[in-house]
């Protein structure tokens, strides 16, 4: 090429880039449908992802779209239900869980929303997507050329714990784990995605400036075009959100001047929606509660109650959220709101890892659905959950068959076939990558979480997991061990009433003996202490292939003459059991204690420094089992 032509080309490239940036700035300001863009980018990520471990950036964009849907004054309940399901599928802590169910559902949302943007808008969407893709690839070209060597090894147990915390709305705790992982694994291949996850955890904790910093760092570091696109979109959405701060403050001032009635309800409802956009879910929940109080029989009272429940769930206040959803079902047992409230309950079970109860609740939700389109969606959700989360293909087939038979006009009626086809296509694509790699390209995966070498079997904490089931049987030992000793002594001596002081050494011996009897070979190096605020215990556990240290702190209260555990803290390996799982664990441990066959009425159970003081009465009938009384947490 001659010198003048090279000189002319060197001028044309910057001019094209400048024109592209100018076009995008106008498009993004006046034409962009951010939700549709998020869904399209998510779909492009899911097209190549073989498991949720490769789809974390898609999850962030789906989450943003879900929040935007909830911030609308009139929520599209079918879209909400679909986005909620997709979020649950992509937030699984099982990194190899397939994503085809989420992929098909995202594709259906993209198709529906694209249909409303025909003609010129559709053309501009296509041009903008092409320009943005070109700019993304151009910006990362130097990093791709550098071909920096990265490490694929990371603590997958910590990643799972962070995902579990996010699922139940504990984003601040998840952020601490991401911060720790970024420090401990500076050369991790998925570092960019970790920064985006940390940014999103900050955003959900309403730490918007910290979130912005993480998104900007991700844009500057990644060498993957999908990642840079997703990071730019999350940053753009965050910048739009930050401009609403002044609006929320002005609305709060106006609300203080209004008396109870429809006008106050309307403004409080709008304020709640604004706080949703700002990711301040606690303030949003309070605003929606104000809307209910302003006019309990007003037309916005029911939507406000639902949104209050959703905000409570998103901010980690799961029990309060379930109360709101159950209230909707009690007060309005028929109609779309009851159906969507029931689905929220199912997704709450799913968030804690209780897939069995989630599937059962979805079955009940199907019975509530009066709208055929909604019922078809629920059949699809339940079938997909049975297939991928519960690994029950036979039962999944029943739901897919019912979907195809009862709702042949539904766009999801061929869901099972579509998912199977996508699995086949992805398998062939993976084979082609292995046998015919591109030359001169240094690909950076969307997320790499699987270590190169085998590691110690990783732990997973969630309702129904082996570790949690084992803890449900093990932790009651700390509380009931004294009951066993007291009942034996009082029956043998005929003592009807007894107050006994147990030393820490006696406690250690009793616990050690009980553990050896009930869990032979599973727990070693058991150490226990008695402190005023609870029993403190530790040991090393071996469950099959799983091996981990265990630490626990458990308080005791007496309810209805039965000792009840108050589980304050449990640490499994380096994983701290999150608060919501602690509550479930506590409920089930207390059920086990209540079912114990000890003929005692406990009058006093006090813990002091180094000893326990217990008073008990012997019942008339020996060996009767107590009534468990309480239902499992979240049952309704």
Verbal overview:
The chain is of the alpha+beta class and 636 residues long. Among the domains are: 155-243, Serine Threonine Protein Phosphatase 5, Tetratricopeptide repeat; 244-331, Serine Threonine Protein Phosphatase 5, Tetratricopeptide repeat (Alpha Horseshoe); 466-618, no CATH class. Helix content is 62%, strand content 11%. The protein is built from 25 helices and 8 strands. It has helices spanning 3-30, 34-46, 56-70, 77-90, 100-114, 120-146, 156-167, 171-184, 191-204, 208-221, 225-242, 245-256, 262-277, 281-294, 301-314, 318-331, 336-351, 355-368, 372-389, 393-406, 415-435, 466-474, 476-493, 504-518, 579-594; strands at residues 497-503, 523-531, 534-543, 546-559, 562-572, 575-576, 600-608, 611-618. The strands form 2 sheets. Strands 2-3-4-5-6 form a 5-stranded antiparallel β-sheet. Strands 1-8-7 form a 3-stranded antiparallel β-sheet. Strand 4 and strand 5 (562-572) form a beta hairpin. Helix 2 runs antiparallel to helix 5 and helix 13 packs antiparallel against helix 14. The longest helix is centred in the first third of the chain and has 28 residues, at 3-30. The radius of gyration is 28 Å and the shape is globular. The termini are far apart. The relative contact order is 0.08. Mean pLDDT is 77; it is low at 20-32, 430-457 and 621-636.
């Amino acid at each position: 090429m001659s010198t003048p032509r090279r000189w002319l080309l060197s001028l044309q490239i910057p001019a094209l880039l400048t024109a592209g940036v100018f076009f995008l700035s106008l498009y993004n300001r006046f034409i962009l449908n951010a939700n549709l863009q998020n869904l399209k980018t998510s779909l492009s990520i899911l097209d190549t992802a073989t498991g949720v471990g490769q789809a974390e950036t898609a999850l962030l964009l789906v989450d943003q779209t879900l929040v935007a849907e909830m911030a609308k004054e009139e929520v599209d309940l079918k879209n909400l239900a679909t986005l909620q399901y997709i979020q649950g599928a992509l937030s699984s802590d099982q990194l190899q869980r397939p994503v085809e169910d989420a992929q098909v559902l995202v594709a259906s949302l993209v198709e529906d929303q694209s249909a409303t943007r025909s003609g010129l808008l559709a053309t501009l969407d296509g041009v903008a997507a092409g320009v943005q893709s070109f700019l993304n690839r151009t910006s990362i070209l130097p990093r791709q050329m550098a071909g920096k060597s990265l490490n694929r090894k990371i603590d997958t147990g910590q990643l799972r714990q962070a995902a579990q915390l996010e699922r139940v709305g504990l984003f601040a705790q998840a952020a601490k784990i991401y911060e720790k992982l970024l420090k401990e694994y500076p050369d991790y291949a998925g570092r960019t995605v970790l920064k985006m996850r940390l940014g999103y955890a900050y955003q959900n904790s309403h730490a918007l400036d910290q979130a912005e910093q993480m998104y900007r760092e991700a844009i500057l570091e990644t060498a993957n075009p999908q990642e840079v696109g997703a990071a730019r979109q999350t940053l753009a959405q965050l910048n739009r959100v930050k401009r609403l701060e002044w609006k929320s403050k002005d609305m709060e001032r106006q609300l203080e001047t209004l008396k109870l009635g429809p006008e106050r309800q309307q403004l409080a409802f709008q304020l709640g929606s604004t706080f949703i956009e700002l990711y301040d879910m606690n303030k949003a929940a309070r605003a929606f509660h104000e809307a209910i109080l302003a006019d309990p029989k007003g037309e916005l009272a029911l939507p406000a109650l639902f949104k209050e429940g959703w905000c409570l769930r998103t901010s980690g206040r799961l029990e309060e959220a379930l109360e709101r959803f159950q209230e909707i079902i009690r007060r309005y047992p028929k109609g779309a709101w009851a159906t969507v409230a029931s689905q929220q309950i199912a997704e709450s079970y799913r968030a804690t890892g209780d897939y069995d109860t989630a599937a059962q609740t979805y079955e009940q939700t199907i019975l509530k659905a009066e709208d055929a389109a909604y019922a078809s969606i629920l059949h699809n959700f339940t079938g997909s959950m049975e297939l991928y989360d519960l690994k029950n293909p036979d039962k999944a087939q029943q739901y897919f068959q019912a979907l195809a038979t009862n709702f042949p006009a539904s766009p999801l009626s061929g869901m099972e076939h579509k998912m199977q086809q996508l699995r086949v296509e992805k398998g062939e694509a993976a084979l082609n990558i292995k046998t015919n790699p591109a030359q001169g390209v240094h690909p950076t995966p969307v997320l790499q979480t699987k270590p190169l070498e085998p590691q110690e079997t990783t732990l997973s904490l969630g309702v129904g997991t082996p570790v949690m089931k084992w803890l449900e049987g093990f932790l009651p030992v700390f509380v009931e061990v004294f009951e066993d000793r007291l009942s034996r002594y009082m029956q043998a001596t005929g003592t009807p009433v007894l107050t006994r002081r147990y030393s820490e050494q006696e406690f250690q011996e009793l616990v050690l003996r009980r553990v050896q009897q009930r869990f032979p070979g599973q727990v070693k190096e058991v150490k226990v202490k008695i402190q005023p605020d609870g029993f403190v215990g530790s040991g090393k556990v071996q469950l099959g292939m799983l091996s981990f240290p265990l630490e626990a702190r458990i308080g005791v209260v007496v309810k209805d003459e039965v000792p009840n555990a108050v589980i304050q803290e449990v640490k499994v390996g380096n994983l701290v059991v999150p608060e919501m799982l602690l509550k479930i664990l506590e409920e089930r441990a207390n059920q086990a204690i209540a079912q114990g066959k000890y003929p005692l009425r406990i009058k006093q159970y006090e813990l002091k420094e180094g000893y326990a003081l217990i008073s008990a009465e012997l019942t008339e009938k020996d060996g009767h089992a107590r009534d468990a009384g309480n239902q499992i947490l979240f049952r309704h």
